[in-house]
Design brief:
Oligomer: single chain
Number of domains: 2
Largest sheet: 4 strands, antiparallel
Strand content: 25-35%
Shape: globular
Structural class: mainly beta
Order of helices and strands: EHHEEEEEEHEEEEEEEE
Number of strands: 15
């Protein structure tokens, strides 16, 4: 399958605020930054025509599994509005090797509008058994106010598009002896070479948090063993079956 960006047509859009006073323009005094900002309005060729070398500013980084293959991928938001470089996608090819795969998500003629991302989160938004991800737009009000122009970008929601049905289960943890959200719990599922792991974190990247409901892709298997190691030292074991959502509650005693 592939990903399609859902923007205005999907109801995910950025509300541009009304300029209240001259102080909202937040002018930049650095000549190069102003040049980048002005060049950006001219799209893909703006920086080149202005004699400015392309630059990838990094603001937010998210880690998730684009293709549910068990290898964590990386997405980097370029953040600042005056930089025209597109957001960056790095696909995990296994053997500790990553390849830039931005072109699988952003069309070349849209690169100048796919910037400014800050936080990135991963979740199975529509519960179809496949991972989706979301970029929140950042740094846009001062840019738009100063240019007296409406932003060309929106917050970005990428939905997995495929005719297949995801063979997966879902798991939500609730702590009792440990903290309620089970932060710090370690989840292992599957067997042999197909064993995968999740670690419950309080944050994932820049001001972001991936879904606390874990997506467990099962591949060709109908069910897999699951082991949960809670922060308290308690261990819970269960069997996850495709199509089922499990709510695991920490036991009172080890």
């Amino acid at each position: 399958g592939h990903f399609d960006r859902v923007g205005r047509e999907g109801g995910i859009d950025t509300v541009n605020h009304v300029k209240q006073s001259e102080t909202d323009t937040n002018p930049m005094t650095n000549e190069l930054r102003i040049a980048r900002r002005n060049a950006r309005l001219n799209g893909l060729s703006g920086e080149e025509n202005a004699g400015i070398a392309p630059y990838e500013n990094t603001m937010g980084l998210g880690v998730g599994d684009f293709f549910d293959d068990g290898f964590p991928d990386i997405v980097i938001g370029t953040g600042e509005p005056e930089f025209v470089a597109a957001d960056v996608f790095l696909c995990n090819r296994g053997q500790r090797r990553f390849e830039r795969c931005t072109d699988q998500f952003i069309k070349p003629n849209e690169a100048h509008t796919m910037t400014r991302a800050h936080g990135a989160v991963f979740a199975d938004v529509n519960r179809d058994g496949f991972t989706d991800f979301y970029f929140n737009l950042g740094g846009h009000p001062p840019f738009d106010f100063a240019q007296k122009a409406e932003s060309r970008e929106t917050n970005k929601l990428f939905m997995r598009q495929t005719s297949e049905t995801g063979n997966a289960a879902w798991l939500t943890l609730s702590g009792t002896r440990s903290n309620r959200d089970a932060i710090g719990a370690r989840v292992q599922y599957g067997t042999g070479d197909l064993t995968r792991y999740h670690y419950i974190r309080s944050t994932q990247g820049f001001q972001s948090q991936n879904s606390m409901t874990l997506l467990l892709p099962l591949g060709d298997q109908e069910s897999v063993p699951v082991q949960i190691k809670w922060p308290s030292g308690v261990t819970t074991e269960l069997t996850a079956t495709a199509g089922q959502h499990y709510n695991a509650v920490e036991q009172a005693t080890p």
